[in-house]
């Protein structure tokens, strides 16, 4: 289904829903084409090619609201689907806050090019994809004879979306992305520690070096040999850039207008107040060229802007969608994030290690959870023990625990190494005096 | 899905029209066509499934012949129609509802241990052949397929329900949520917010293999989840309680409605008294029930045979070896009546079973799907599951639990001088190769001098699978199964599971704390 077919179908769905009694309608139509290669033991383990499409419709009728999605897009099925959706909605309670966004929040121009689509996507052939995965495995296997298993992979996707709001918005968005990865298991006595590395891009010809990914995954796994827990206590903590995005979720789950309105946020009442070290500035920027989170409007059609989330440690905004904006009286500014950037520092990960006297370099989190109502969190970690600026051993089977209210004030330095393969461009971070439990 | 209606529709409109009738008006139950509601899904026969998916033996054989045209050893076609309904209450009103319908067929071709996969959301001979052609490319020679006569294996019925969810309209579900909500606010005046969801799923599946096996199943699921927020002296706490199973609406009895409200409130307000335990290694008592998450993470994933076939699990060479005390037996079971992880047949058409992972302290069996059972030259354990027709199957857990042991709950608690008693959980994770696993304790108690004392909250526990198995020093006689809606994720695929445990003492494990 091309763009025009999607728009025509969306208009048709809207008309049917209005005809059956809806006052307002949202229609979302997606399609994607993706290919996945998994490679192991010098041959393809799995080759999956898929083309899929889906439609979702939200019904607003007498201030009653419901949402429905289906993968069956033929009109004879859809008409019945829509009729039932509208009829069923009437059983719900009315909710005065249920209506589409005020059209003044829709974008006025949709012509900005964020460079998200590789127009040569359809020219990539399967043999090239398989070759990528093969190259990664070859590179990883050469690194050490302690390697037990390498699983390398290649994934790509070409996706398109049309969003229609019946009160005056039609938007079309889409993009491509390409991912290569490897996970490597190594022998370590009875254990088989594993680690992985990956890279991703918007354009096929910018896929990162397969050699680098394979070698890095192998070296990461090899570094885990001999891992063990160390004594319970306070350590300085360096968090590697790619692991640090997990920590960001401590803020984001508590910043939504929903969690404020539902009284489940420890950040309730903290707007314009310090919630973190003044070293921390976090920006949400939807307009990064080729960015993985880039967009011109969000899933409700709200125009997005570059915004400051936290400035020098002070909370600058909540994340307000249309519905909870109406419920709280806050102005909607999009309830979802785009690309996360920080004000970066000057130190590399290696510099941060050099500065640390007694610390743990966390390079992965395992399980754990956080309580957005109270700020409490507890995560399992793996990483490396640092003593006097040197990495001395691998650590695992330890927990990091704390409360976000205090924890972010212990942040003492921001690295200069944003993660280029994610929409969350976290750098490595250094915290002082963090509680770890171990032996 | 009345047989007569569907057949007639089939004759009148052909394959395409048939799929149109596949949209079942669960959302609007009160307007259900009477004839449509006449047949219980559990009574549906193979022919009904053929009609429902708009196929017959010849069409399936034709698609298989394309799938195996490049020299694949084996192929299967997995047809699926699932309908999910969600009705929600927030701010004291039932003011939101969602439906998700998924319909399609996945085609898998296997060559040795290599898999080719594709799927289509439109079930016609043409679209299926196109998908089959894509999946066929995992092989690169040529092959000929002799049409098979399909034979259906045995199919038990582990989840009888009274009324299919298709006959329960949204109007019938709303009062349940309203009642629970009234009870919540009546229970404790510190409650300030509540969020409730009534969810149900109906999954029709049919799988046909190039070896002539055909199976089908109707898999229901019902769940009510309750989350509460409470405030006391300016401090807020949140917790939840849910009940889930392969159940019909009759499961939500007045007693269960009452429990949903009271237990959610109790779990929430108790957190006002809660402290964080000290950090470090200590004895941990796991309460009977959802503590089975320990088994899911510490041993279950490591026993999934795909990880072992690749030699990346810490348990790869442990079969036949002692791994725990003699009173420790652990099973993964698809046969528990109405339990969330039960399946009559797996997604490869194999009848499910109760599989011993550990029997009397000795490692017994991995969990197998087709590929791994061929590799190990054993029978599949009926563990081949998939999230939907969009994915190929893998070995997965069903209901994982420990059998009752020789100890009493009271003597287990009395034996601990200083430790914790872990009771409710939110999530867990494991590194298969190193064996490190975690699970997050939402609530429990400190154990001091053989007694449960202060409540605790929000701590992660981290251990090593084989070490923790060896450190299980007491097992109670009070096995209980988890009651909540557990979902297991692996390689991007989610499937419903359950778990269970008697009261168990682990002598030493690392507890996150302050």
Task: Please specify the SSE layout and strand pairing.
The complex is a heterodimer of chains A (439) and B (514).
Chain A: H1 3-19, E1 24-40, E2 43-61, E3 64-70, H2 75-89, H3 126-141, E4 147-165, E5 169-186, E6 194-201, H4 210-223, E7 233-239, H5 241-255, H6 257-261, E8 282-284, E9 307-311, E10 314-315, H7 322-328, E11 340-342, H8 349-355, E12 358-370, E13 376-387, E14 390-403, H9 404-407, E15 411-414, E16 429-437
Parallel strand pairs in A: 7-12
Antiparallel strand pairs in A: 1-2, 1-4, 2-3, 4-5, 5-6, 7-16, 8-9, 8-11, 9-10, 12-13, 13-14, 14-16, 15-16
Chain B: H1 3-21, H2 46-53, H3 57-67, E1 74-90, E2 93-111, E3 114-120, H4 125-136, E4 151-152, H5 170-187, E5 191-209, E6 213-232, E7 235-245, H6 254-269, E8 280-286, H7 293-300, H8 305-309, E9 330-333, E10 354-359, E11 362-363, H9 370-376, E12 384-385, E13 394-395, E14 399-402, H10 409-414, E15 418-430, E16 436-448, E17 451-464, H11 465-470, E18 472-475, E19 480-481, E20 487-490, E21 493-496, E22 498-501, E23 504-511
Parallel strand pairs in B: 4-6, 8-15, 14-22
Antiparallel strand pairs in B: 1-2, 1-5, 2-3, 5-6, 6-7, 8-23, 9-10, 9-14, 10-11, 12-13, 15-16, 16-17, 17-23, 18-23, 19-22, 20-21
Helix pairs in contact in B: 1-2, 3-4, 5-6
């Amino acid at each position: 289904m091309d763009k025009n077919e999607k728009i025509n179908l969306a208009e048709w769905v809207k008309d049917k829903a209005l005809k059956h009694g809806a006052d307002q309608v949202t229609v979302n139509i997606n399609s994607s084409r993706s290919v996945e290669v998994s490679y192991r033991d010098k041959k393809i383990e799995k080759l999956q090619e898929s083309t899929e499409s889906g439609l979702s419709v939200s019904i607003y009728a007498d201030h009653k609201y419901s949402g429905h999605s289906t993968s069956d897009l033929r009109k004879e099925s859809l008409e019945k689907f829509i009729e039932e959706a509208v009829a069923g909605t009437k059983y719900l309670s009315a909710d005065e806050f249920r209506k589409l966004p005020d059209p003044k929040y829709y974008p006025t121009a949709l012509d900005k090019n964020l460079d998200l689509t590789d127009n040569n996507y359809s020219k990539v052939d399967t043999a090239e994809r398989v070759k990528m995965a093969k190259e990664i495995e070859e590179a990883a296997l050469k690194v050490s004879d302690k390697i037990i298993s390498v699983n390398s992979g290649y994934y790509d996707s070409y996706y398109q979306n049309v969003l229609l709001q019946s009160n005056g918005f039609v938007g079309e968005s889409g993009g491509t992305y390409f991912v290569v990865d490897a996970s490597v298991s190594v022998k370590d006595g009875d254990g088989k520690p594993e680690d992985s590395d990956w890279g991703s891009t918007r354009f096929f010809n910018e896929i990162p070096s397969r050699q680098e990914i394979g070698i890095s995954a192998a070296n990461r796994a090899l570094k885990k040999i001999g891992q063990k827990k160390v004594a319970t206590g306070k350590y300085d903590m360096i968090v590697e850039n790619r692991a640090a995005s997990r920590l960001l979720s401590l803020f984001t789950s508590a910043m939504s207008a929903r969690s404020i309105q539902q009284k489940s946020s420890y950040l309730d009442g903290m707007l314009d107040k310090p919630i973190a070290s003044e070293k921390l500035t976090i920006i949400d920027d939807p307009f990064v060229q080729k960015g993985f989170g880039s967009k011109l409007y969000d899933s409700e059609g709200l125009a997005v802007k570059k915004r400051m989330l936290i400035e020098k440690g002070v909370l600058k905004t909540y994340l307000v969608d249309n519905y909870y904006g109406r419920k709280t009286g806050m102005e909607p500014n999009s309830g979802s994030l785009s690309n996360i950037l920080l004000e970066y520092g000057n130190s590399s990960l290696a510099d941060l290690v050099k500065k640390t006297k007694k610390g743990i370099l966390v390079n992965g989190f395992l399980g754990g959870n956080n309580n957005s109502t109270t700020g409490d969190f507890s995560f399992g970690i793996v990483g490396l023990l640092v003593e006097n600026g040197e990495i001395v051993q691998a650590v695992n089977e330890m927990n990091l625990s704390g409360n976000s209210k205090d924890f972010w004030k212990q942040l003492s330095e921001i690295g200069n190494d944003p993660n280029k393969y994610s929409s969350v461009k976290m750098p490595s971070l250094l915290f002082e005096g963090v509680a770890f439990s171990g032996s | 899905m009345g047989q007569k209606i569907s057949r007639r529709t089939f004759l009148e409109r052909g394959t395409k029209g048939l799929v149109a009738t596949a949209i079942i008006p669960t959302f609007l139950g009160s307007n259900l066509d009477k004839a449509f509601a006449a047949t219980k899904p559990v009574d549906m026969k193979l022919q009904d499934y053929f009609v429902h998916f708009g196929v017959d033996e010849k069409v399936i054989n034709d698609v298989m012949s394309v799938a195996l045209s490049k020299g694949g050893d084996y192929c299967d076609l997995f047809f699926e129609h699932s309908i999910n309904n969600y009705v929600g209450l927030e701010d004291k009103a039932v003011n939101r509802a969602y439906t998700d319908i998924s319909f399609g067929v996945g085609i898998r071709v296997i060559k040795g241990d290599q898999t080719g996969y594709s799927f289509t959301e439109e079930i016609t001979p043409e679209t299926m052949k196109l998908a089959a052609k894509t999946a066929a490319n995992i092989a690169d020679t040529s092959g000929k397929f002799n049409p098979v006569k399909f034979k259906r294996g045995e199919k038990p019925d582990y989840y009888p329900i009274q009324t299919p969810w298709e006959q329960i309209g949204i109007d019938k579900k709303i009062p349940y949520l309203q009642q629970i909500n009234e009870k919540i606010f009546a229970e404790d005046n510190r409650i300030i917010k509540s969020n409730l969801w009534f969810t149900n799923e109906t999954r029709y599946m049919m799988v046909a293999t190039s070896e002539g096996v055909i199976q089908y199943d109707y898999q229901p699921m019902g769940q009510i989840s309750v989350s509460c927020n409470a405030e006391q002296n300016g401090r807020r706490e949140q917790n939840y309680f849910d009940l889930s199973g392969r159940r019909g609406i009759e499961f939500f009895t007045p007693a269960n409605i009452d429990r949903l409200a009271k237990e959610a409130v109790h779990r929430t307000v108790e957190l006002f008294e809660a402290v964080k335990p000290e950090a470090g290694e200590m004895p941990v008592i796991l309460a009977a029930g959802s503590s089975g998450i320990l088994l899911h993470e510490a041993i279950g994933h490591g026993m999934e045979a795909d990880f072992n076939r690749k030699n990346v699990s810490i348990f790869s060479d442990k079969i036949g070896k002692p791994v725990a005390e003699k009173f420790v037996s652990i099973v993964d079971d698809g046969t528990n009546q109405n339990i969330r992880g039960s399946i009559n047949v797996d997604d490869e058409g194999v009848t499910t079973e109760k599989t011993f992972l550990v029997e009397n302290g000795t490692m017994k069996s991995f969990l197998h799907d087709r590929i791994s059972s061929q590799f190990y030259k054993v029978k599949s354990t009926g563990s081949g599951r998939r999230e939907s027709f969009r994915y190929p199957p893998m070995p997965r857990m069903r209901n994982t639990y420990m059998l009752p042991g020789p100890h009493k709950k009271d003597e287990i608690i009395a034996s601990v001088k200083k430790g914790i008693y872990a009771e409710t959980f939110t999530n867990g994770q494991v590194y298969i190769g190193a064996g490190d696993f975690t699970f997050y304790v939402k609530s429990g108690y400190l154990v001091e001098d053989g007694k449960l004392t202060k409540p605790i909250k929000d701590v992660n526990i981290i251990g090593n699978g084989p070490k923790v198995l060896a450190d299980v020093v007491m097992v109670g006689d009070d096995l209980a199964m988890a009651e909540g809606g557990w979902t297991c994720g692996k390689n991007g695929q989610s499937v419903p599971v359950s778990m269970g445990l008697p009261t168990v003492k682990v002598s030493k494990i690392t507890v996150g704390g302050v």
